[in-house]
């Protein structure tokens, strides 16, 4: 039972080719979300500074985006920086922001060549000027792309997203644009950063922690969770394929019964 619950905690011994062969391409999740966690611990275990882990984490992200494109996934959402991550030492926050800027400028050509649409989500106005410029550039350059929608959660928090939605809806009530009775789940979903997107089918969290850490609180209502002890910098194609394979074995009931 526990083994089933923690599916992904058990390292696969299969090769990438074997995993790929088992995968049913017609039953892939439409939307995959990932909490890219464990960079710091990965580095500390190697006696290296945390920044070393963050840099290695960017490489893992690059591979996961590449595989998402190869598999023709429709939506990939990655948690890159939370509204609570500002609590970290200033030096670490700066390193994370610099890595983001570097990643976007370095990768934008290839992402666009792969038809990836970059959709940063979070309170972007609170980002420092350089990351904001990089984010604006990525939005501008990729806005007409029709392939993978790549949501990058930056200064993102599920509660702050819901708070923003409530305020916006409240303003529309004040101005007479909508009535209180007209608020329904769709209206709320339409005021989130994931407007127009399906909810994640699969949430991956590496590095052993079992919590959502303020990620996609509304959208995860019926998402399948896949956890692994592998740290994010070590998360590669095999882990991603294993998560997708395990997802394909899950029985999703959405509160109903399978008849
Ligand atoms: C994830 O790795 C990166 C961010 C949160 C930005 P962490 O930095 O949280 O690494 P751990 O969890 O401390 O190992
Ligand atoms: C979640 O990881 C945020 C990101 C991966 C960007 P954290 O490392 O910040 O979460 P906690 O503090 O362990 O819950
Ligand atoms: Mg962490």
Question: What does it look like?
Answer:
With 259 residues, this protein is an alpha/beta fold. The chain has a domain of 177 residues: Decaprenyl diphosphate synthase-like (Undecaprenyl pyrophosphate synthetase). It is built from nine helices and six strands; from the N terminus they run ααβααβαβαβααββα. A six-stranded parallel beta sheet has the order 3-4-2-1-5-6, sandwiched between helices. α4 runs parallel beside α5 and α5 runs parallel beside α6. It is globular, with a radius of gyration of 19 Å. It starts with a helix and ends in a 10-residue tail after the last helix. The site of one 3-methylbut-3-enyl trihydrogen diphosphate (IPE) has 11 residues, from β2.
Structure keywords:
single chain, 259 residues, alpha/beta, Undecaprenyl pyrophosphate synthetase, six-stranded parallel sheet, 9 helices, binds 3-methylbut-3-enyl trihydrogen diphosphate, binds magnesium ion, transferase, ditrans,polycis-polyprenyl diphosphate synthase [(2E,6E)-farnesyl diphosphate specific] activity, UPP_synth-like_sf
Which bin fits the share of residues in helices? 40-55%
Give the strand content: 5-15%
| CATH class value of the domain at 28-157 and 202-248 | Alpha Beta
Largest sheet: 6 strands, parallel
What compounds sit in this structure?
A: 3-methylbut-3-enyl trihydrogen diphosphate, magnesium ion
Identify low-pLDDT runs.
1-5
Q: Overall mean pLDDT score?
A: 96
Major beta sheet, strand line-up:
3-4-2-1-5-6
The CATH superfamily of the domain at 28-157 and 202-248 turns out to be: Decaprenyl diphosphate synthase-like
The protein's oligomeric status is single chain
GO biological process, one term: polyprenol biosynthetic process
Enzyme class: transferase
Function: Catalyzes the condensation of isopentenyl diphosphate (IPP) with allylic pyrophosphates generating different type of terpenoids.
Organism: Desulfallas thermosapovorans DSM 6562
